[in-house]
Amino acid sequence: MRYIEPHAHMVSRVTDDYVAMATAGCAAICEPAFWAGYDRSSPKGFFDYFRQLTEHEPKRAAKFSVPHFCWLCINPKESEDVQLATEVIDLIPEFLNAPNVLGIGEIGLNKNSRNELKVLEMHVDLAARTGQLILVHTPHLEDKFKGTRLILDVLKNDRRIQPERCIIDHVEEHTVDLVLDEGFWAGMTLYPETKCTAARAVDILECYGSEKLWMNSACDWGVSVPLAVPYAALEMRRRGHATEAVDRAIFGNPLRFLSQCPKFKPAM
Ligand SMILES: [Zn+2]
Q1: Is 93 in contact with 130 (CB distance < 8 Å)?
Q2: How far is the CA of 204 from the centre of ligand 1 (A)?
Q3: Distance 220 CA to ligand 1 centre (A)
Q4: What count of other Cβ atoms lies within 10 Å of the Cβ of residue 16?
Q5: Distance 158 CA to ligand 1 centre (A)
Q6: Each residue of 184-216: pLDDT tens digit?
């Protein structure tokens, strides 16, 4: 088996996770910038984090022969302070040429507030000005449907944005068609408690087709499973999906989306 992990927060994982993922056939790991579990006190905290994502983590991953890529932004959870967000967004351009940066993400909404929306628009503008791919985080549970609609409106209202260059992550049964119908890519996050289980994700693949969908573990410092993608592949095999269909879902699809950034090169 070979697969791409398109969304994992490796800075909060141990080296055993790299070993397990490499052993399971992981050909590349992509790490969106995220909330650290606590609010950072100044833009300097983000500057150091961006260095960790662009300099330190790729070296750590290379020790396990896994190419490491990342996305940069200030996450929606820390976007309530628009002044802080402005200062952090100003730091991003100097990192965009780093060899492992794929684009702007994971941007989006957390509580669907006015300030979060403003910061989302600032990120979308930065991505449009600099020609970057976009990875979007959608809110949790009861805020997800409304948040997804608000996010799609922001992206559609900016004429510079091409939907096929944006992935809307953490979709569930009630948001996946909104996203795909507008020509965007959709990501499904495999979590043991919230978000999708492997069985639900494979149901969605079966119902909505597998053209513009990918699966990820979004493993971080909380309850999450770094091997969730290969486990979902096992679920596909158990249901009788052909080897090629499994390969397309866990390798071919993320490869197609991510290769829109010429820097993306998985270990083949
Ligand atoms: Zn994430």
Answers
A1: yes
A2: 20
A3: 7
A4: 9
A5: 24
A6: 999 999 987 767 889 999 999 999 877 899 999
Kindly report, residue by residue over 108-162, the tens digit of the pLDDT. Answer: 999 999 999 999 999 999 999 999 999 999 998 788 999 999 999 999 999 999 9
User: How do residues 166-183 score in pLDDT, each as one tens digit?
Assistant: 999 999 999 999 999 999
Contact between residue 66 and residue 43 where contact means Cβ atoms under 8 Å apart: no
Q: What confidence tens digit (pLDDT) does each residue in 64-78 have?
A: 999 999 999 999 999
Residue 191 CA, ligand 1 centroid: distance in Å = 11
Residue 137 bridge partners (DSSP): 108, 169
- Count the residues in the chain: 268
Distance, in Å, from the CA atom of 197 to the CA atom of 188, rounded to the nearest integer, reads 9
Cβ atoms of 239 and 202 within 8 Å: the answer is yes
Tell whether pTM > 0.90: yes
Is 166 exposed, middle or buried, given 0-12, 13-18 or 19+ CB atoms closer than 10 A?
Answer: buried
- Centre of ligand 1 to C-alpha 246, Å, is 23
User: Comparing C-alpha atoms, which of 232, 259, 257 is closest to residue 247?
Assistant: 232
Angle at 110 between CA 108 and CA 112, to 5 degrees: 85
What dotted CATH number matches 3-258? 3.20.20.140
In the prediction, which pLDDT does 7 show?
A: 98
